[in-house]
Amino acid sequence: MLKNIYKYFCYTMNTKQKNTTIKGTIAIGIAAILWGLDGVVLTPQLHNLDVGYVVFVLHLLPFLLMNLFFFKEIKKLTIMSKSDFFYFFLISLFGGALGTIAIVKSLFLVNFNHLSVVVLLQKLQPIFAILLARIILKERISKNFALWAGIAITSGYLLAFGFHLPDTSGNGKELLYACLFALLAAFSFGSSTVFSKKILGNYSFVTSTYYRYGFTSVIMLIYMVLWGNFSQFSATTTNNLIFFIIIGLTTGAGAIFLYYYGLRNVKAIYSSIIELMFPISAVIFDYLIHGKIFTVTQWIAASIMFFAIIKLNRNRIQKQKT
Fold first, then answer.
1. What is the spatial distance between Cα 317 and Cα 11, in angstroms, rounded to a whole number?
2. Alpha carbon distance 258, 93 (integer Å)
3. How many domains does the chain fold into?
4. Residues spanned by the domain of 96
C-alpha cells in the first residue's frame, strides 16, 4: 500500500495538477481518520439514546448549520431534474439513513467491545458496490471478482469470529448481530456509491453535501414521526449534546465536505487506498483509547482483507477504462 502511495506522489509531482491532487489526497486522508475516530470514540458515547433519534439529530444539526452559510443552495431545487432529485433521494436513503442507522446500531450493540472489528467489516462495501454497479449501471465485472470477493468475505469472518462458529448466546450473540448490521451498512454505503456515480459529478462538493444531509434529515423526520420516540429529546444529556455538535462539525458533515472535495481531485484507485486510513485509524484509536489489540489471527485476516479490497477496486477501475 505504501509503495503505491509513494508512486502516486512521484507521478503527481510531475503534473500541473500536483497541488490540487495533494490537497485532495490530504482531504480524503483526514476524512478517513475522522471516520475512524467517530466509530471508536465519538458515536459510542451516544449509546444511551435511541438509534433512530441519534441518526436524525446527527443529520439535522449539521443541515441547520449549513443553512447559515449555504442557504442559497436551496434554490437549486427549482432547476434540479426529476432524475437528479431521485438519485439524491437514493443516496440519502442508503448512504445517509439506512447505512448510518445500521453502523450506529452495530457500534451500540458491541458496547465498546470489538469496535474496530465492526468498523473493518464495513469496508467490505466495494463487494456490494461492484455487484450493484453490474446490475444498475451495467458495468462489467472482472473475471477475478469472485476470487477476491470470496477472500475478502472469508477474511472478514476470520477477523470477527476466528476459526470458530459464531456464538449465539450472551455477548457472542450481540457480536453476531453487530457484524450483520455492519454488513448491512456496507451494503447501504456501497449502494450509495453506485447511485453517486449517476449524479455527483454534476454538482459541487458543497451542493452534494448540502442535499445529502437535507434529504436524509427529511427521511429521518418521517422515520421519527412513524416509529421514533420524541421523548428522546428530553432524555438527551448535556454530554450527549456536546458529542452531537462535535460529530456534526467534524466526523459528520465536516468529513463529508473533505471527502467530496478530495474525490474531485484524486484518481479513484488511489482514493480507495487512502480510504483505508479509516479502518487503520480505527484500530489505532481502539488501542489507544480502550486498550484493545488484535490477535495474530485478526491481524493476518485484516491484512488479507485490505489486500483483497485493493484488488477489487483496482480491477473495477481497470474494467471501467477498457
1. 18
2. 21
3. 1
4. 20-321
